[in-house]
Amino acid sequence: MRRSLALLPLLLLVGCGQPKTKAPLTQGLPVTTNVWAQLSLVTENKPNNKANSEILQGFEALLQANPESRRNLAKIMEALGAIKDAGLGDLTKGDLQSITLGATLPKNAALIGPSPADLQLVLILRGNFNPTRISEFANNNGLKQTEVGGAPTWALVQLIGKIAKEKQTAPDPFGFGLTAVDEHTLVIATPSALNHAVAALQGKEGSLIAPRINVLDAYQDWQLLVVFSDRDLIDNAAAENSKGERTASLVKAYLDALPHDHIVAISGQRGDQSAFGLYGVNAATQESLSYGASMSTTLAPKMVELAGKLVKFAADEK
């Protein structure tokens, strides 16, 4: 299994598909959002489809080779079936098409491991869902249904517990709710953000407008985009960590010179390369620093296919 873990950076580099447009889907994210990400699960690239299929088959073979892993795989497939039966889509047939995540952190929040009180989190799932079936499933399992913006809403952790057939679920410190806005949109959010997210998706409130970042223009398509857009949070955290240190003034001088009001990570197609890039950007001046890796688009699916063969080889050794 350790061999397969080494392949994860390669999968991140190549991505899992190419969306039709590079324009991010930020509708539904509150205007206060300062950390957001989008993952596209749609793929139309045939070489990548074939290569990704090879590696998934290799992982399945690896899991099947070990009795304990085989039992875990059976549980995963059972869970996917339960998710479909609950109206949340058939994940094996691509019903989940994209995931957009947004968070609003206050200026004094911890960047790593913020408390539930600090975190306003919104998760938007786009694809093909069945709100009527979700409602029936929830009702049949004794779950309370409420409404947000006229759309049916349930407690997320309790709903997941029923899907997973858990007898008792632990309390949810975040209080996440799930709202079926329509048959193509589900929203998961903390209580303080759920009303605003649903209203934004319904056009009743404003949504986050993605900032203009020129470095993204080099990417014709992308699969994963992560944007951190709050310089104050970075500066405050750095100042707190260096407080009283002899290097505090150097840390401040370094940050003043460093473009970092937006930190951007992106995986996608750049020219004839499948690339992963990490950028520090000053949106006002468009100054930027970049770090990244890439491989040609013709080589990328071959490398993924090779990774699949390596995983299958590891399975055959078991």
Percentage of residues in helical conformation: 25-40%
Q: The biggest beta sheet, please?
A: 11 strands, antiparallel
The arrangement of helices and strands along the chain is HHEHHEEHEEHEEHEHHEEEH
Strands in their spatial order, largest beta sheet: 4-5-6-7-3-2-1-8-9-10-11
The end-to-end span amounts to 10 Å
Query: What is the molecular shape?
Result: globular
Q: Oligomer, anyone?
A: single chain
Count the E strands: 11
Number of helices: 10
Uncertain runs with pLDDT below 50, 5 residues or more? 1-21
- Over the alpha carbons, how many angstroms does the gyration radius reach? 22 Å
Task: Report what the structure shows.
The chain is built from ten helices and eleven strands. The chain has 318 residues and is α+β, with helices and mostly antiparallel strands. A hairpin with a 2-residue loop joins strand 6 (177-182) and strand 7 (185-189). Helix 3 (46-64) packs parallel to helix 10 (299-317).
Blueprint (SSEs and pairs):
Layout: H1 2-5, H2 8-14, E1 35-40, H3 46-64, H4 67-85, E2 96-104, E3 120-127, H5 131-140, E4 146-148, E5 151-155, H6 156-163, E6 177-182, E7 185-189, H7 191-201, E8 219-228, H8 231-242, H9 248-257, E9 262-270, E10 273-282, E11 287-296, H10 299-317
Antiparallel strand pairs: 1-2, 1-8, 2-3, 3-7, 4-5, 5-6, 6-7, 8-9, 9-10, 10-11
